[in-house]
Amino acid sequence: MRVILKRIFNAIFLSFGISAVVFLLLRVLPSVSFSDLYLNPRLSDEAITRIKSSYGLDKPVLVQFFVWIKEIAMGNFGFSFIYRKPVIDCIFDAFLSTLIIGLPALIYSFGLGIVVGVQLARKKGKAIDKLVSSFLLILYSIPTFWVGIIFVLVFSNVLGFFPPSGLRSFNFSEMSFLEKIFDLFWHIFLPSFTLGIAPMSAVARFVRTHTLKVLSQTYVKMAKAKGLEERLIFYRHVLPNALLPVVTLFGLYLPVFLAGSVVVEEIFSIPGLGKLAIDSIFQRDYPLTVGITLFVSFIVILGNLISDILYTIFDPRIRLE
Amino acid sequence: MMAQRKIFLVSIFVISYLAFADLIAPFDPIMSLDRQNLSSLPPLTRVYEINLKDGRKVIAFEYVKESEFVYYTQRFSRGRVKLEDLKNVRSLIFVFGTDNLGRDVLSRTIYGGKISLLIGIIASFIALFVGLIVGVFAGYFGGIADKILMRITDVFLAFPKLFLVLVVVSLSQRQTIFSLILILGLLSWMGIARFIRAEFLKLKNMEFVLALESVGFPELRIALKHILPNAVLPALVNIPLLVGDLILTESILSFIGFGVQPPTPTWGNMISEAEKSLLSTWWLPILPGILISATVLIMNWASEVEE
Question: Could you say which of A77, A121, A221, B233 would form a disulfide bridge with A291 (CB–CB 3.0 to 4.6 Å)?
């Protein structure tokens, strides 16, 4: 329990720290300050003061900082210049699209990664292990955006199997319920597959190494010496221990998924968080850019916290530390 | 193979590439010979450069030499020149085709690779430098300095890196290659700082440090002259991994449009330009993509710890 409390406290500290860093960035980097207001000859000094005070900029920096922290803690990330609605609303709309392609990618990359990794560990040293392991390293090194472009080129443009962009067909509203579901799956297949490739190979490589590590421990030797069946040792005694740390991978690879979703959404024109972030930067919509960064950071911290807590629950050894 | 030997091999390869990239590139990577006639040529296209005595050049797809004239065919026109004006005819081949501005893809990829590699390498050395300072401070002083520095490191590690880089890039007004390198370097030091600190804590309790202390060496000298070299060497193994990671980050940034701006090519912005006309010029993204993957693969391979 104490470990979990410590983790929660740590997560809160990290969120606080991240907000502080973003606040500092906004202060230090000149483009967001209102200094260019002074260049406008038609604005009187009083008008500028009024504008500044309406944004709370006339107060001391420290007060501004605590106001900023308070608003963020209450879920107020500011107001988007372009969309004319609260940043948090824009983020939630987009986050749904990101989840639609992110969740399938998450599930298949961890599922397939674990299966492949375990099988490779069982066949250690054989030709197939070497072949697949090198292939996984190659998959891990290929940039996601390039894979996405090649997939669009081959599967959408040349072969025509999948739609090149968007989340739904133009006649989506006329479809029956089943057709709608099929249409959605048809649209998310390529982006999800693209998004999951790099994490899949990373998970597989991790699981392989870790399973081998567990296999070399003395209790496995002991079980063998006792004459237990090889399969039984592997699936009953080795596997649970080997797969435990995969829980921590979830928190570790969340940033990879989020970074991947930026480029995947850009390539497949999916109105998700990544695309929103890019658009907001191009449109100089600072509140939105900053809001998305904070939101994404909090998600990553939350993901890490959850995987840490799960790990503490599953692995009693951690609790003793 | 040992990691150090792998890194040695990779560095020799990289340095020779950086040194000879300009020499290998067959064409100018930024200016086209003839923008109109050479645009969007598929791979393995052969063209002829007809050089005239007055210094002019004409690009032709075919030409016929007859008794008095040379007849040539360009993309949008035909023409002829008198034989006595002709200096020579050079045959050119675009192995990987040309882009829509008529520039050779191969030359751009070779040159762009130089930029991408340089960004990755310089930025990781900045990261190494900052990480070294933070790690040494935290490991050497310990106590409250260590706590504060490690907390700061944790905060920077908690950011999803791409988003942090995006925010800083978008908030900084002018964008140059130099500022990009600086931003990438200053946002990637955390792993190295942690590594150096851990090594420091480990080495601080070893016998040779105790021996030096008992002889009466000043502490700072022990830290910088005896512990630091032992801590840096294992940290160097992480450098190729960082270089690979930064090359990927740079290519993602350039792909989205916030990295190196055209006409200077990098692998990332070449793929980004290729995406705009994917259907008509499918050959543009192939080579840069293969080279990014290969480079990152080599870097990952160099850092891979033997089991």
Answer: A77
pTM of the complete model: 0.87
Select from B187, B241, B255 the residue whose CB has the most chain A CBs within 10 Å, as the one to mutate to test that interface: B255
Question: Does the beta-carbon distance from B162 to A259 stay under 8 Å?
Answer: yes
CATH entry, B45-94, from 3.90.1150.10, 3.40.50.360, 2.30.30.100, 3.40.50.280: 2.30.30.100
CB of A275 closer than 8 Å to CB of A94: yes
- Each residue's pLDDT expressed in tens, for chain B with a length of 307 residues: 577 788 888 888 888 888 888 888 888 888 888 878 888 888 888 888 888 888 888 888 888 888 888 888 888 888 888 888 888 888 888 889 888 888 999 999 999 999 999 999 999 999 999 999 999 888 888 789 889 999 999 898 888 888 888 888 877 767 788 889 999 999 999 999 999 998 888 888 888 888 888 888 888 888 888 888 888 888 888 888 899 999 999 999 988 888 888 888 999 989 998 888 888 888 999 999 999 999 999 998 888 765 4
Residues B252/B228, Cβ–Cβ less than 8 Å: no
Q: Does A136 touch chain B (CB under 8 A)?
A: no
Contact state of A137 with B300 under an 8 Å Cβ cutoff: yes
CB contact under 8 A, A143 and B166: no
**Helix, strand, coil percent values for chain A (each to nearest 5):** 80, 0, 20
Q: Where in chain B is the domain with CATH 1.10.3720.10?
A: 3-24+104-303
Give the orientation angle of helix A2-28 with respect to helix B161-171, to 10 degrees: 20
d(CA A139, CA A118): 18
From chain A residues 67-106, the ones with a CB under 8 A of any chain B CB are none
